[in-house]
Amino acid sequence: MIERDQISAKYEELYGVEPALVSKSPGRINIIGEHTDYNEGFVLPTAIDKAVYVALGKRNDTEIHLFAEDFNESFQVDLKDVSPTDKGWPNYILGVVNQLKERGYKISGFNLYIDGDIPVGAGLSSSAAVECATGYGLNELFDLNIDRVSIAKIGQLAEHTYAGVKCGIMDQFASVLSKENHVVRLDCRDLSYSYVPLELGDYEIVLLNTNVKHSLASSAYNDRRHSCEKAVALVKEIYPEVNSLRDVTIEMLDEIVQPIDNDSYVKGKFVVEENERLAKACEAMDRGDIQEMGRQMFRAHEGLSKEYEVSCEELDFLVENAKKFPEVLGARMMGGGFGGCTINIVKKGFGQQLVDSISPAYKKEFNLELTPIFVKTDNGSELVY
Ligand code: GAF
Questions:
Q1: Which of 162, 167, 332 has most ligand 1 atoms within 8 Å of CB, for mutation?
Q2: To the nearest whole number, what is the mean pLDDT of the chain?
Q3: Are 193 and 232 in the same domain?
Q4: List 171, 247, 286, 316, catalytic entry
Q5: ipTM more than 0.95?
Q6: With a 6 A CB cut-off, is 278 part of the ligand 1 pocket?
Q7: Are both 221 and 350 inside the same structural domain?
Q8: 99: CATH
Q9: Under 8 Å CB-to-CB from 90, ≥6 apart: which residues?
Q10: How far, in Å, are 35, 261, 264, 270, 288 from residue 256 at the CA level?
Q11: In terms of residue numbers, what domain contains 302?
Q12: How far does the centroid of ligand 1 lie from the alpha carbon of residue 38, in Å?
């Protein structure tokens, strides 16, 4: 948790006046339902108590002045010249500004200072949190009257256009709309959603950070999306009513895609089954059966690793080792993959022991530290000031 005063003081030091407001958008976890969002399926995420903070104030001109604490770096551009930059971090902010401009919202120049405590590259959606804190903050600063779902969509499109990742809506939706002690059961086809109480009884969520992010993450993500689109296109030739993998059954894939395109078949099958696993996990949660929810998480990891092929040795190692402990009900890689964290459902109080047991072997195998992250759920975007 970063103190509000710390953010304001830094803004004032940079820009010579107090910020008009400070907005906050959290990172997210996801219980189950991975790579389903861009296939019009279901996801089960929620926000965590780690967030991005954005301090904002209007300027008297049309310039945008940015400063990122993590990089100790500033960036300036005129509103009319906003375009993607090879500098990296400003894109998540500029992409949002560009979306606001494209949608005809009236904004003028502003100063922005950004800081946060979401570990970067850990698969906790720090980039979505930047987009959402920016969108939420600018909405307030310029009284734009944009609803929360649209703020999430603006963040998603910023990621597509300025970061080059054709992500689904899960991360931005969770960052803006989550509710403490609940997970969001989101239907990514029509964005209808409900809040499911997250009641884990004697268990808690522990994240294990591999501390790796393999470089092929973004390109592989877009490749997976492409494989899914190919599977849909093949099914559509026979079943024209099909629009996404959400409408597809395993029987359809068996009938049409399997003989033609093995890669699309395997990827498509994973997505269809992942939606089924999510449904089973939700039913289990409804009847308080977190053991079954955990089993579905283990199965999801199998699929993500062997079929969808978005895991990596480090993630597989952590899940395989977590499985050895009866105190761990479920574990799997989380988010886009190729590094980041595993999410584990662990008996309360056992988390540190789990980490202490796995860490030495992890270090020996990969020469990397293993970092536990004990998270609580939180609300979506809000003003802190
Ligand atoms: C990343 C994306 F940004 C999400 O939209 C989602 O597809 C996720 O990977 C995989 O479930 O976090």
A1: 167
A2: 96
A3: no
A4: 171
A5: yes
A6: no
A7: yes
A8: 3.30.230.10
A9: 66, 68, 75, 77
A10: 22, 9, 11, 16, 39
A11: 203-376
A12: 8
Phi, psi at residue 6, to the nearest 5°?
-65, -40
| 125 is an annotated ligand-binding site residue | yes
Whether residues 181 and 53 share a domain: the answer is yes
CA of 268 to the centre of ligand 1 (A): 16
Q: Is the pLDDT of residue 217 over 70?
A: no
In a 13 Å sphere around the CA of 117, the CA atoms on its Cβ side amount to 12
- Ligand 1 near 34 CB (within 6 A): yes
**pLDDT value of position 5:** 86
pLDDT at 150 over 80: yes
- CB of 351 closer than 8 Å to CB of 374: yes
From residue 186, how far is each of 116, 173, 243, 272, 277 by CA, in Å?
A: 26, 9, 18, 16, 15
> Does the beta carbon of 170 sit less than 6 angstroms from any atom of ligand 1?
yes
Q: Could you identify the residue written with the tokens 């256009």?
A: 161
Decide if 171 is catalytic.
yes
Give the other-Cβ count within 10 Å of 240's Cβ: 8
Do 166 and 253 belong to one domain?
no
Mutation test residue for ligand 1: of 40, 124, 221, the one with most atoms within 8 Å of CB? 221
- Count up the domains in the chain and report the number: 2
Residues 165-178, mean pLDDT to the nearest whole number? 97
pLDDT at 2 over 80: no
The finding on whether 167 has its CB within 6 A of some atom of ligand 1 is: yes
Domain match, 171 and 218 both: no
Q: What's the confidence (pLDDT) of residue 3?
A: 74
Ligand 1 neighbourhood includes 338 CB (under 6 angstroms)? no
Q: Is 93 exposed, middle or buried (0-12, 13-18, 19+ CB in 10 A)?
A: buried
The reported pTM is: 0.96
